[in-house]
Specification:
The structure is a homodimer. Chain A folds into two domains: 203 residues, TIM Barrel, CATH 3.20.20; 104 residues, Lyase, Ornithine Decarboxylase, Chain A, domain 1 (Beta Barrel), CATH 2.40.37. In chain A, α6 packs across α7. Chain A contains nine helices and 16 strands. By secondary structure, chain A is an alpha/beta fold. In chain A, the strands form two sheets. In chain A, strands 1, 9, 10, 11, 12, 13, 14, 15 and 16 form a nine-stranded mixed β-sheet that branches. The radius of gyration of chain A is 21 Å and the shape is elongated. In chain A, β5, α6 and β6 form a beta-alpha-beta unit.
Amino acid sequence: MTTIFDAQTPALVADAAILAGNIATMARALPGDRLRPHVKAHKCTALAREQAAAGHASFTCATIREVEGMAAAGLGEDLLLANEVLDAFRLGDLVTAGHRVTVAVDSPETVRAAAEAGIREVLVDVEVGLPRCGITASGAGEIARAATKAGLEVRGVMGYEGHVVGMPDRTEREAACAESMGLLAEAHDAVGGDTISAGGTGTYDLNTLATEIQAGSYVLMDTAYGMLGLPFGQALGIISTVVSVSGDPAAPAWAVADCGLKALGMDHGNPSVSRLEGGPEPTVWFCSDEHLTFAPNGPIRVGDRVRVPPAHVDPTVAYHEWLLISDGEAVVETWPIDLRGW
Amino acid sequence: MTTIFDAQTPALVADAAILAGNIATMARALPGDRLRPHVKAHKCTALAREQAAAGHASFTCATIREVEGMAAAGLGEDLLLANEVLDAFRLGDLVTAGHRVTVAVDSPETVRAAAEAGIREVLVDVEVGLPRCGITASGAGEIARAATKAGLEVRGVMGYEGHVVGMPDRTEREAACAESMGLLAEAHDAVGGDTISAGGTGTYDLNTLATEIQAGSYVLMDTAYGMLGLPFGQALGIISTVVSVSGDPAAPAWAVADCGLKALGMDHGNPSVSRLEGGPEPTVWFCSDEHLTFAPNGPIRVGDRVRVPPAHVDPTVAYHEWLLISDGEAVVETWPIDLRGW
């Protein structure tokens, strides 16, 4: 049996109990179709299957590859591509084959791409305060009319309050979320439809407008979301081997683990480090391509293992081929991260 | 014929002429075994084959997977794993099969792992000022003796002046390189052997001690190295499609391209953006998982394409499956990035 002490490193590992707890906690708060889990956070159909087993049949995707992979895994009952694409033609065959695929549109060009692809259903994507995709609330009705005219069924609206989900103070987060959702409500009035799709892990219980929440990070969590006091535990870390120790192992100047920039999303900054077998908390110094240099703040030896929780889960997972699931020291599952790429 | 205007995006694309120029320029400066190209920068055996065609038969690798892939591609004449590993046993079969594999060692543990794996040759890795792997210069002799005692042939020393290669001022870089190499020379005096392996793209013509230079970035280059005035052109960019434009396309507030955190190494900061068809230079605002939000500073339309040169090549390449090679607008080659993972 492989353990976290002999698995090949760097190894992306999630704790089975914390993972199951996160899925159960969310399923209680947002049962069934109240949650549309976002697969971009884990890119793993085996993990999506656990979410499906908890009652969620509809999923959110960020890329065409994610849609394709979810459909191929038999999880294509109701897939939302919550993103604008001009190569929607890649999705036509999935729709023909009976998978339900809804795409986000926010412009005449994306409406046309969807219609020409044989896509049947869309959501109008609304900009709710984050300067990214989405039409203004006041322009949403016109996009909906263009979609209808092109023969598409408009299921409703979506709008991601991405500038809100990470706000540390819950009261401020709630107020900012309400302000964002005011824009989405205005758009929905103009667009109609049954669906108001929005939200993320940071607003899963604050967003009272959305008919479905697109949370994804709650399953694995990261250090950024970990600071918000949410009822989800940090399941994910990278198990890494200490490959070099500078100076006396009893009082080393620094140590180096085999987990670097090619194993870590770095946009939220450095990861943290903890020892697998207890002991003083190390201090991270910096990452190189394949290395993490840190002050061990106590004895450490070449061959010791550390856990490296990334600052940002999503771009971290996208570097890895496998997600190991651990139960204590034992590695009990090895799941392919099969939704990578575009 | 696929072009950069219809290739699926985000697409990692290198310009054929700039690539060939970079390889030729380096091969003139450091012919044959004077250069040991580092494959970590591109992780692509097809590109390594171009370097081999330019006369370089020995290569540097950062991971066991890179060594395995290079050997499998028939490029295993002289591979240096310039990194400490405890799972050297994974390399034993390659050595038995006749590939020449040399590994870096800096501790009794890594010496033992190499010897037990059936590795025959090592370099003593020396810390030359960058707090990462490597034994101190004064401790190098002891590691060499341990290796010899374990039945390993010590080919010499290596030491990477990674804290030096990016220094903007050439005179300072040269002085700092000389200081670093003073330590490596001291270590070499104690260790012996024919090989002094060191250097990178930023010191390729300043490091006068090294018998071989481990440069890798010179082939593709990035914006960080681009500021040093080196004779290598920026070959690499990510071709990306504008999927959303905010406001009037004639005077938009912002635009969004499909190139985000999962397509870009972010440790050196944001990428830059330029238009494929000329026009005002855009200003990058921020990256999300699958999006790059930027101010176009002039008209832009949904469906337009932009080129996104990453701030740091190595962790960018590691996200992508394919490297397209372009000649003008035409995509003339599609090379698998086949050395990813560990």
